[in-house]
Structure formats: structure tokens, C-alpha cells
UniProtKB/TrEMBL annotation, chain A:
Keywords: ATP-binding, Nucleotide-binding, Transport. The keyword Signal does not apply. This is ABC transporter ATP-binding protein. Belongs to the ABC transporter superfamily. Residues 5-238 form the ABC transporter domain. It holds the Pfam family ABC_tran. PANTHER family: D,D-DIPEPTIDE TRANSPORT ATP-BINDING PROTEIN DDPF-RELATED, TRANSPORT ATP-BINDING PROTEIN. It comes from Pseudaminobacter soli. GO terms for molecular function: ATP binding; ATP hydrolysis activity. CDD domains: ABC_NikE_OppD_transporters (cd03257). It comes from the Bacteria.
From TrEMBL, chain B:
One of its GO terms (biological process) is transmembrane transport. PANTHER family: DIPEPTIDE TRANSPORT ATP-BINDING PROTEIN DPPD (PTHR43297:SF2), OLIGOPEPTIDE TRANSPORT ATP-BINDING PROTEIN APPD (PTHR43297). Pfam families: ABC_tran. This is Peptide ABC transporter ATP-binding protein. One of its GO terms (cellular component) is plasma membrane. Residues 5-254 form the ABC transporter domain. CDD domains: ABC_NikE_OppD_transporters. The keyword Phosphoprotein does not apply. It is found in: Cell inner membrane. Keywords: ATP-binding, Cell membrane, Membrane, Nucleotide-binding, Transport. It is a peripheral membrane protein. The keyword GTP-binding does not apply. GO terms for molecular function: ATP binding; ATP hydrolysis activity.
Length: 249, 277
């Protein structure tokens, strides 16, 4: 079976600074894969490089068995869509939800736009009353739902999620995570999810890669992580840190 | 335990085009030399509570309280000048993101010196010595070097330590920390909290720790106040957080994913309108 996403020795450099140092990974179709690390670990850069948003200087990326060229074509974006961290920054402030959802359909030449927009909103749990609102009239959680609807409207097979809930309150985070799991199950999507939060990644993903300084530290399953079967000290220190502050007596 | 701060029926409201928005609606608590956590989600009024005590509420807002007493001083009655003299000297505040709350065109050392000399008539050499001492106290390894750096030249964790140094250099009695570690990586977060914890204990300060992160606050503070829609819904010792009774507190604790807990879907918060009454 071909991998949904296959990355081989991917390298990203911003001038002389190498942000991603020859990272390789395979994601199976229908799998949910997590990337964890602290700021500067290269986790978001990896995701952006796949989406064509970071300068790739070496390595290969294949999507559903097809190698990607230097520039992403339309067909690529039909298969791969991305949801960004900050729902306040990723929605056009002067476009209504309707206009936001229409744009990708327009670009890709869909004709039954009306039906698709209604269905997309319905799928993310926003009623049609939200359709003609502007993003500033929505809460953070509602905005992220719109961003997810926009990503899903082209019926991609792979969703790249860059910290999709870290700008949201804990209770809203739970709702958005549940929504993501629900659409993944319904559409048999492949997820690649970036987060600094180990608990969120182990909740959402089957396998994960811990990254630091642009390199892979460890590749492990969520079950192993939960059982504390980790091999690297760095992963262990992340695990300890995620348990909260401990007052040293 | 002597009481440092007494707050009774604090209300903060903002007039807007669509009417009065009440951000804080009758908050009461008292604080001694302890660590008090104020937890809530966006819009719960937790930050406005801290800002009202610090005297940083926007000018057009209306603040009322039956009592807002700091060490015998009625904070609602003092003049702007007195308030200004107290701010930094007796009550200090650590803000969330060092990237935005430090002066970008002034070296870290000069900013600490400025904070100190605003409140104490000390000479240049003495101020420099105290600033370096303070940088060492927040565990900056090479204070001399960091003294001469600009905020953009240091990491987030280092910037936040510099801010702690700046806030503590004048020796305040009460420290308000508004999401002091939310912009930091988890491992750095623990270091900064460790430093804060040690300094607060050593200097016998009162601390108000404002945060959205219920678990972090409960692991750090002695007592936790949970706010919802401008009111306190529950107050409890941090060690007994698991025995929280209010459905909002319980829901907030419950809805966070936990490593090793296999809960699909996650329980979500069912907000009851009566919580906001």
C-alpha cells in the first residue's frame, strides 16, 4: 500500500539557517500522525514545507505515491488542505463566511457551490445563520470551525493541522478536537497534526514524532508514550513538563 | 496571617455603544502572603480583576467596590500620583509576553535600572549593582552580558526572567502575574515558575497568579479562585481541586485531554445559563 504522505530527507533552509535537517517520515492512508516539539523544533516548518509554504532545499515529498515538484499544482491542493493556528489571522476580515467558502470552490471550478457551502457549514456544526456573517462576528471556536469547513470543502484526503486548538480555551479546544475526530472518521481522512501539547497529540494521533532543533528525536506510538515507553531523555523531559509544576520540597 | 489585600464586591464595567458591558461583577476575596490563583476562560474577568488592583484599567471604565484595601490604603480613593508611586514599588505586575511588554529600544539592564530609580533615590553605580544582582537572582548565568542586550536578542524564557527581575527589583509586597508563562515552551515554563516560586517565598510577597490553565495554577498556588462570566463560581485550596463541586470547574478539569486516558469524544462543557446569573 502506498503511503498517503511520504517524506524523505526533507531539508528547509532560510538563507544560511537550516530549520529542518533531513527529516523523513511515512504516514499511512487514514492514519493520524502527530508532530511534537517546542518553538524552533521545525515541526511547523515541516508542515509548511509539505504545503509548499517553506523553501525546500533538499529531499523528496510524495503524496499518495506521486512525487511533488518545486511548485504545488491545483491537483495537490484538492488532495491536501491546511488548517492554521490562529483563527483570527487566517480568515479574511472583509469577507463573509459565504465568500470565504466560495473561493476554493471557485478556484477549482466546482459548480454546485450552493449545496457544498450549506453542507460544509452543517458538517462543522455551524447553522446556515452563520453563512453571511463576517469573521469578527464569530468567536474563536466558531472561526476555527469555519477554517475547518474551508479546508474540507474541496474534499481533500489529507489535512495538515498546525496547532489547530492552541489559540482556544480548554472547553472550546475539546469541542474542536471532537469535531476533527468526527470528520476524520466520516471521511476517512489522513491527519498530520502539529502541536506543542503532548496530551493533545496523544489524544488525536496514533503515532507521533518528537522533534528538536529541526531533527527527529524519536518516533513512537501514542500507546507507548502513554505507557512511558520512551527512549530519549528529551521526550521524557517533555512528558514531565506536561504534568505541570512540581514544587521541590 | 496578616491580610495584604482585601477585595469586596469589585465591579468593573465598560460603557460601549450597545450598553454597559460588565466584565467583573462583584468579586470578593482577601489575600495574605500566599499564592492565589485566579482561573477562568477568555472573558471571565480574571485579567480585569488583576488590572483593577494594579490600577491599569482603561480610563473610561467604571470601577466600584465596597472595599479595595491594600495594607490599609483604600485603592479607590488614592490620587493618580500616589497610585503611580505605588505601582512597581508596592504592587507589581508581570505580563504575558516579554516580546511585547519589554521596551524594544532599551537594553534589559537600563530597563531594570529605570524601574528601580523610578522608586528609589539610588546612584547609577548602586542601581547597576542591584540590577545585576536581580538578574543573578532570576538565574541568568551571565548577568553582565544580559544587562547590555536588547529584548530581541534574548529568548522568550530569558525575556520573561528579565521582566521578573524588573518587577521585583523595587521589592514589591504584592505581585500580580497575568499569564506569566503562557507564551513560553513547556520546559521553560517550569523553570520560570520555579524561579518565581522561590523569589515569592524568600521575599515574603503575596502573589496573584492569573491564568486560563487550571491545572498549572493548581500545581503552583495555595488557593484557587475560579471565575466565570465576571463572577467567582468557586474558591478552594489548590490541593483539593479534584474535589471541586461547581459543574464549571469540574467541566473545565474534565475537558482537557490527558496522556493515557482514552476518552473519545472528549467530554465537553455544557454551559448552563444559571452559572452566569
Amino acid at each position: 500500500m502506498t503511503s498517503a504522505l511520504s517524506i524523505d530527507k526533507l531539508r528547509v533552509a532560510f538563507d544560511e539557517f537550516v530549520a529542518l535537517k533531513d527529516v523523513s517520515l511515512e504516514v499511512k492512508p487514514g492514519e493520524s500522525f502527530g508532530l511534537v516539539g517546542e518553538s524552533g523544533s521545525g515541526k511547523s516548518t515541516l508542515l509548511r514545507a509539505v504545503a509548499g509554504l517553506a523553501p525546500v532545499t533538499g529531499g523528496k515529498v510524495e503524496v499518495n505515491g506521486k512525487p511533488l515538484g518545486a511548485k504545488r499544482d491545483k491537483a495537490f491542493y484538492r488532495q491536501v488542505q491546511m488548517v492554521f493556528q490562529d483563527p483570527y489571522g487566517s480568515l479574511h476580515p472583509r469577507q463573509t463566511v459565504d465568500r470565504l467558502l466560495l473561493e476554493p470552490l471557485d478556484i477549482h471550478g466546482f459548480d454546485d457551490t450552493e449545496r457544498r457551502i450549506v453542507r460544509a457549514l452543517d458538517e462543522v456544526g455551524l447553522g446556515s445563520s452563520f453563512r453571511f456573517r463576517y469573521s469578527h462576528q464569530l468567536s474563536g471556536g466558531q472561526r476555527q470551525r469555519v477554517a475547518i469547513a474551508r479546508a474540507l470543502i474541496l474534499e481533500p484526503s489529507i489535512l495538515l493541522l498546525d496547532e489547530p486548538t492552541s489559540a482556544l480555551d480548554a472547553s472550546v479546544q475539546a469541542e474542536v478536537l471532537n469535531l476533527l475526530e468526527q470528520v476524520r472518521a466520516a471521511r476517512k481522512l489522513t491527519f498530520v497534526m502539529v502541536s506543542h501539547d503532548l496530551a493533545v497529540v496523544t489524544h488525536m494521533c496514533d503515532r507521533l514524532m518528537v522533534m528538536q532543533h529541526g531533527r527527529e528525536v524519536e518516533l513512537l506510538s501514542s500507546a507507548d508514550l502513554a505507557a512511558r515507553k520512551v527512549n530519549q531523555d528529551y521526550t521524557r523531559s517533555l512528558l514531565t513538563a506536561s504534568e505541570g509544576y512540581r514544587r521541590s520540597a | 496571617m496578616s491580610t495584604l489585600l482585601q477585595v469586596e464586591d469589585l465591579r468593573v464595567s465598560f460603557p460601549t455603544r450597545t450598553g454597559l458591558v460588565q466584565a467583573v461583577r462583584g468579586v470578593s476575596f482577601s489575600l495574605g502572603k500566599e499564592r492565589l490563583g485566579i482561573v477562568g476562560e477568555s472573558g471571565s474577568g480574571k485579567s480585569q480583576t488583576g488590572r483593577a488592583i494594579m490600577g491599569l484599567t482603561a480610563e473610561h471604565a467604571q470601577i466600584t467596590a465596597k472595599k479595595l484595601d491594600f495594607n490599609g490604603i483604600d485603592l479607590l480613593k488614592v490620587s493618580t500620583a500616589e497610585r503611580r508611586a505605588m505601582r512597581g514599588k508596592r504592587i507589581a505586575m508581570i505580563l504575558q509576553d516579554p516580546k511585547y511588554s519589554l521596551n524594544p529600544v532599551m537594553t534589559i539592564g537600563r530597563q531594570i535600572v529605570e524601574a528601580l530609580r523610578a522608586h528609589e533615590p539610588v546612584g547609577g553605580a548602586e542601581a547597576r549593582r542591584r540590577a545585576l544582582e536581580m538578574l543573578a537572582a532570576v538565574q541568568i548565568r551571565d548577568p553582565e552580558r544580559v544587562f547590555n542586550l536588547y529584548p530581541h536578542e534574548v529568548s522568550g524564557g530569558m525575556g520573561q526572567r528579565a521582566m521578573i527581575a524588573m518587577m521585583l527589583v523595587a521589592g514589591p509586597e504584592l505581585l500580580i502575574a497575568d499569564e506569566p508563562t503562557s507564551a513560553l515552551d513547556v520546559t521553560v515554563q517550569l523553570e520560570v515558575l520555579g524561579i518565581l516560586n522561590r523569589l515569592v517565598a524568600e521575599r515574603g510577597m503575596g502573589l496573584i497568579f492569573v491564568s486560563h490553565d487550571l491545572r498549572l495554577v493548581s500545581s503552583f498556588c495555595d488557593r484557587v479562585i475560579v471565575m466565570y462570566a465576571g463572577r467567582i463560581v468557586e474558591e478552594l485550596p489548590a490541593s483539593r481541586l479534584t474535589e471541586a463541586e461547581h459543574p464549571y470547574t469540574r467541566g473545565l478539569l474534565n475537558c482537557m485531554p490527558k496522556i493515557g486516558a482514552d476518552r473519545h469524544p472528549l467530554p465537553v462543557l455544557d454551559r448552563k445559563p444559571e452559572w452566569a446569573l
